[in-house]
């Protein structure tokens, strides 16, 4: 016996037998359909048939449960024919879910497709109970799990997502509550330099189990793990802003700008970092866009002078443009600011103190804009008693502009006891220095001029509430003069930033990424 077991051929036979037994244990389905024939010979019962659903709107709903999951059918026919159709694959049990239009529990009748010449006698059961749930989609920020450790003397830094880490997850409503995180893995084992790659994302529940039914969009993301050899260096995080150059084709406006990163981290000595307060804005050339749709920009980021490095080293922007539409917002209130102490002001045109504002932008953005999202401000600083035409400062949501070449204006009646000295800029009240004439001074009259050596403030630069609209000298008559401010230079706003959609008369003051001004802040302020 020992000699037989020691024989190499015998050992191979035993190993093969064990392998076959293990394979059978794994692959044999004890619930597979079975066929049982009745004693009459012309009746056959087929048990454990699976049910095939069809007609359910898979984009909106998911079939959660079916009870029972298998049924039996009783058929009749010629004995020879039933014997030739011995496999259960010839019999299909179906249920129609096309009439289900909302989530819930339903009782559904079953249908059986039998082979030709075979008659269906009965289905047991003839109906099943199904539960249908609605699919929901929710936004998540994907995270990265690094495995392994970098090479000796090196350390990993925070991950950088090339195209951002925002993803959309779709699941049945009951399962969405279980989602804890959306995660991908990447190895940094033995690395002495940055590690980059595309990682597959997986949805995990609160107890750490994988949610197999989760549909994640995008299913994978690009990530970079910076590896540092100088772990003791300091770092500073700076906001990453964007500006625009060029212009969009006629009829198109910006709908959305997605940035792969909203900030950068600069590494270097404490002295270098102390001197950094911002990172130069990234300029996107809108001339590259020739048609509606998405355009992707990939921009390299350089470390500031004296810094060791910057993370990320590049960033992608996805710019979406669409045909513009317009919408009129009624009864937007006007706010008065800057009125001198002792004076009162009344808006005489429009008498209601409210204005209708026509705005332009993408239809998806216009839909949510209301009067509360628009701010109209009239700066009355420096105005004396009398009637004045005051241009309004307009603040709008991102990528929205007014449908006018110049900002709107109102007529204001100022009354009160404030002295001319309190209301007028020094240049207007200096009796020893009369206003220059075109022959002696090349600049136009401007009531917002400041004393020599004093820089004009932002409000003086942009409000222009007292600036004559011509180059002729103006003699102001307190209480009677109507002043028409000059329109600001095209392409500028109060904040000094450029509106990439056509910025005449609009100001973007939200917390999202905003355009940066690429040239001067306007030509209306006069600096002595």
Describe the structure.
Residues 407-528 are annotated as: Disordered. Residues 407-426, 440-451, 459-483, 493-521 have a biased composition (Polar residues). This is CdaA regulatory protein CdaR. InterPro entries: c-di-AMP_regulator (IPR053154), YbbR (IPR012505). It comes from Saccharibacillus endophyticus. By secondary structure, the chain is mainly β. The protein has nine helices and 35 strands. Strands 1, 2, 3, 4, 5, 6, 7, 8, 12 and 16 form a ten-stranded mixed beta sheet that branches. The protein has a six-stranded mixed beta sheet with strand order 33-29-27-30-32-35. Strands 9-13-15 form a three-stranded mixed beta sheet, with no helix packed on it. Strand 5 (92-96) and strand 6 form a beta hairpin. The chain starts with a helix and ends in a 20-residue tail after the last strand.
Q: Approximately what portion of the residues adopt beta-strand conformation?
A: 35-45%
Shape: flat
pLDDT averaged over residues: 76
Largest sheet: 10 strands, mixed
| Overall helicity | 10-25%
Low-confidence stretches: 420-499, 501-528
Determine the structural class based on helices, strands and strand pairing: mainly beta
Q: Distance between the terminal alpha carbons, to the nearest Å?
A: 115 Å
Briefly summarize what is shown.
With 528 residues, the chain is mainly β.
Topology diagram in text:
Elements: H1 2-6, H2 8-27, E1 34-37, E2 43-54, E3 61-67, E4 70-76, H3 79-84, E5 92-96, E6 104-113, E7 119-124, E8 127-141, E9 143-147, E10 155-156, E11 160-161, E12 166-172, H4 173-176, E13 179-187, E14 195-200, E15 202-205, E16 215-217, E17 220-225, E18 227-228, E19 234-239, E20 242-245, E21 252-259, E22 263-268, H5 270-274, E23 282-285, E24 293-300, E25 309-311, E26 314-323, E27 325-337, E28 343-349, E29 354-361, H6 363-366, E30 375-379, E31 386-391, E32 393-396, E33 401-402, E34 409-416, H7 420-423, H8 426-429, H9 458-463, E35 507-508
Parallel strand pairs: 2-5, 9-13, 20-23, 27-30, 32-35
Antiparallel strand pairs: 1-2, 2-4, 3-8, 4-7, 5-6, 6-8, 8-12, 10-18, 11-17, 12-16, 13-15, 14-17, 19-22, 21-26, 22-25, 24-26, 27-29, 28-34, 29-33, 30-32, 31-34
């Amino acid at each position: 016996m020992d000699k037989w077991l020691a024989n190499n051929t015998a050992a191979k036979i035993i190993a093969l037998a064990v392998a076959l037994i293990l394979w059978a244990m794994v692959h044999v389905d004890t619930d597979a359909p079975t066929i049982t024939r009745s004693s009459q010979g012309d009746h056959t019962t087929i048990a454990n048939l699976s049910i095939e659903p069809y007609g359910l709107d898979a984009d909106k709903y998911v079939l959660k449960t079916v009870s029972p999951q298998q049924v039996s059918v009783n058929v009749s026919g010629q004995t020879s024919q039933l014997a030739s159709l011995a496999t259960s694959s010839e019999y299909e049990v179906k249920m129609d879910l096309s009439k289900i239009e909302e989530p819930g529990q339903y009782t559904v009748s079953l249908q059986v497709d039998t082979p030709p010449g075979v008659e269906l006698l009965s289905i047991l059961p003839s109906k099943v109970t199904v539960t249908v749930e609605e699919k929901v989609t929710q936004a998540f920020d994907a995270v990265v799990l690094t495995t392994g450790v970098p090479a000796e003397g090196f350390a990993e830094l925070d991950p950088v997502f090339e195209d951002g880490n925002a993803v959309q997850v779709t699941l049945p409503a009951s399962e969405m509550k279980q989602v804890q995180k959306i995660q991908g893995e990447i190895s940094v084992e033995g690395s002495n330099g940055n590690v980059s790659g595309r990682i597959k994302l997986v949805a995990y529940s609160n107890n750490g189990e994988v949610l197999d039914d989760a549909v994640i969009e995008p299913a994978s993301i690009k990530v970079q793990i910076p590896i540092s050899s100088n772990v003791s260096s300091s770092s500073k995080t700076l906001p990453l802003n964007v500006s625009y150059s060029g212009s969009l084709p006629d009829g198109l406006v910006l709908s959305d700008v997605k940035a792969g990163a909203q900030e950068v981290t600069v590494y270097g000595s404490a002295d270098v970092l102390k001197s950094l307060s911002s990172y130069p804005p990234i300029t996107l050339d809108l001339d590259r866009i020739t048609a509606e749709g998405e355009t992707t920009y990939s921009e390299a980021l350089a470390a500031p002078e004296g810094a060791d490095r910057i993370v990320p080293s590049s960033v992608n922007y996805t710019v979406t443009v669409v045909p513009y539409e317009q919408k009129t917002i009624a009864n937007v209130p006007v706010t008065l600011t800057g009125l001198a102490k002792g004076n009162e002001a009344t808006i005489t045109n429009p008498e209601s103190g409210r204005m209708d504002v026509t705005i332009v932008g993408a239809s998806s953005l216009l839909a949510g804009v209301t009067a509360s999202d628009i701010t109209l401000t009239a700066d009355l600083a420096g105005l004396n008693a009398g009637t004045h035409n005051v241009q309004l400062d307009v603040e709008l949501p991102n990528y929205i502009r007014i449908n006018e070449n110049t900002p709107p204006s109102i007529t204001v009646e100022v009354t009160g006891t404030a002295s001319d000295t309190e209301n007028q800029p020094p240049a207007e009240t200096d009796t020893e220095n009369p206003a220059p004439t075109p022959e002696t001074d090349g600049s136009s009259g401007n009531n917002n001029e400041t004393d020599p050596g004093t820089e004009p403030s932002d409000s003086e630069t942009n409000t222009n509430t007292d600036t004559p609209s011509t180059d002729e000298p103006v003699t102001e008559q307190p209480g009677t003069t109507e002043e028409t401010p000059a329109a600001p230079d095209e392409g500028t706003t109060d904040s000094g930033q450029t509106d990439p959609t056509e910025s005449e008369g609009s100001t973007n003051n939200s917390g999202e990424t905003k355009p940066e001004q690429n040239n001067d802040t306007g030509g209306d302020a006069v600096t002595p």
